[in-house]
From TrEMBL:
Keywords: 4Fe-4S, Iron, Iron-sulfur, Isoprene biosynthesis, Metal-binding, Oxidoreductase. The gene is ispG. Residues 15-283 form the IspG TIM-barrel domain. HAMAP family: IspG (MF_00159). Converts 2C-methyl-D-erythritol 2,4-cyclodiphosphate (ME-2,4cPP) into 1-hydroxy-2-methyl-2-(E)-butenyl 4-diphosphate. Its cofactor is [4Fe-4S] cluster. This is 4-hydroxy-3-methylbut-2-en-1-yl diphosphate synthase (flavodoxin). Belongs to the IspG family. Pathway: Isoprenoid biosynthesis; isopentenyl diphosphate biosynthesis via DXP pathway; isopentenyl diphosphate from 1-deoxy-D-xylulose 5-phosphate: step 5/6. It comes from the Bacteria.
């Protein structure tokens, strides 16, 4: 594919209201995540949902796998509301979702959306009956549904039929291509059954998750070609650490660039004891770097080289990034537009002044053999030169002042001068 620079026009999809968050219909791509707590543990689940929501997850999915977890859902919803968190909760159902929703009406009411896996909603003659039971519950409580196909739990009857049909052809397709088609058909046939049952298209979101990058791209682009349903994107079982981040980013950025996708999740395996909110941050950063949304100010920092033997610029860049992200929940309301701020923290004279001039506010720290002075640029003009042992702290103060001055409605540029000792 060869395209002009910039993302392709967004695919026209049907808008779905998920607990007050609009998915599809041209709305900004929504970031979501999922807890890994035992939902029956109300305290742990509330804490993790709160952490995910505060880090920027706009929808949070929770596992509802047994009576104890279903009974906990209304209490979780109530506790979150007492904390002032209105984040929509999605119930993730497998195998016995029809029964849990029927037996726990308060759970059915408290959830903002139900997620159904057509590969394990039921088997043989029970499959359609139990699927329809969930759809009827969604209609009763006016809840949207995500029909989430996953190739790790694909409808085996459908796959077998398509494999048999393929084998009968004179020139059969490769098994991988047939599996892709089975994933697409599973989503579309399930959506058709949901609509026949009475669920509106504006209450249906589809997903078709696989764990290989090229398969995911192929499946979603074809699914988008054959349907106008809102689509949730995610590379399932992406993996841990940099591998999971790279694989998810590689797949989702291409799909999004093609104008496909209305909501995303980065399915990272946490490091042992790791922070679940990492997947939210990665999702936000992906949407931000490809130009779809702005969540936090951008900090440009050089990678370092032999001219930058000091670690000051690395430490300062990290401090500034952490400080900006930590303050964003408050600043987003207090300083409208602050998420568009660009900060530069550079390590030597080669690119430092130029990059700092391109940023809203930037600093060029001295490299090896350079004069121990750090010019600061605001809106393209040099406004100060910092010296001494407090350069980092002084620059942090200048960034905070700049945010207050620019986004708080005051003059942004201080008078030119020298600072430090």
């Amino acid at each position: 594919m060869t395209h002009a620079a910039g993302p392709q026009p967004r695919r026209a999809s049907v808008a779905v209201d998920v607990g007050g968050v609009l998915v599809g219909g041209g709305a900004p791509v929504v970031v979501q995540s999922m807890t890994n707590t035992d939902t029956a543990d109300v305290d742990a689940t509330v804490a993790q949902v709160a952490a995910l929501a505060r880090s920027g997850s706009e929808i949070v999915r929770i596992t509802v796998d047994r009576d104890e977890s279903a009974a906990a859902v209304p209490r979780i919803r109530e506790r979150l509301e007492r904390l002032g968190l209105e984040v929509p909760l999605v119930g993730d159902f497998h195998y016995i979702g029809h029964k849990l929703l029927a037996d726990h009406p308060a759970c059915a009411e408290a959830l903002a959306k139900y997620r159904i896996n057509p590969g394990n909603v039921g088997f043989k003659d029970k499959k359609d009956r139990q699927f329809i039971a969930i759809i009827e519950t969604a209609i009763r409580y006016d809840k949207p549904v995500r029909i989430g196909v996953n190739w790790g739990s694909l409808d085996q009857a459908l796959l077998t039929r398509l494999m048999d049909d393929n084998q009968a052809k004179g020139s059969p397709l490769a098994a991988r291509e047939v599996t892709r088609e089975a994933i697409i058909q599973s989503a579309l046939l399930s959506a058709e059954l949901a609509e026949q049952t009475g669920l509106g298209r504006d209450r249906i979101i589809l997903s078709a998750k696989v764990s290989q990058v090229q398969d995911l791209i192929a499946v979603y682009l074809e699914l988008a070609r054959r349907s106008d349903h809102a689509l949730h994107l995610g590379l399932t079982e992406a993996g841990m650490g940099s591998k999971g981040i790279v694989a998810s980013s590689a797949a989702l950025s291409i799909i999004l660039q093609e104008g496909v996708g209305d909501t995303i999740r980065i399915s990272l395996t946490p490091e042992p004891g790791g922070d679940r909110t990492k997947e939210v941050i990665v999702a936000q950063e992906l949407l931000q770097v490809i130009g779809f949304r702005q969540f936090v100010p951008v900090v440009a920092a050089c990678p370092g080289c032999g001219r930058t033997t000091s670690t000051v610029f690395q430490e300062l860049a990290r401090t500034i990034e952490d400080d900006l992200r930590r303050n964003m929940p408050v600043w987003r309301d207090k300083y409208p537009g602050v998420e568009g701020l660009q900060v530069a923290v550079m390590g030597c004279i080669v690119n430092g002044p130029g990059e700092s001039k391109h940023a809203d506010i930037g600093i060029s720290l001295p490299g090896t053999g350079e004069s121990p002075a750090a010019p600061v640029f605001v809106d393209g003009r040099k406004v100060a030169t910092l010296r001494g042992t407090n350069i980092a702290a002084d620059f942090q103060d200048m960034v905070a002042d700049y945010i207050e001055q620019r986004f708080g409605g005051k003059s942004a540029v201080p008078p030119t001068g020298e600072a430090g000792s």
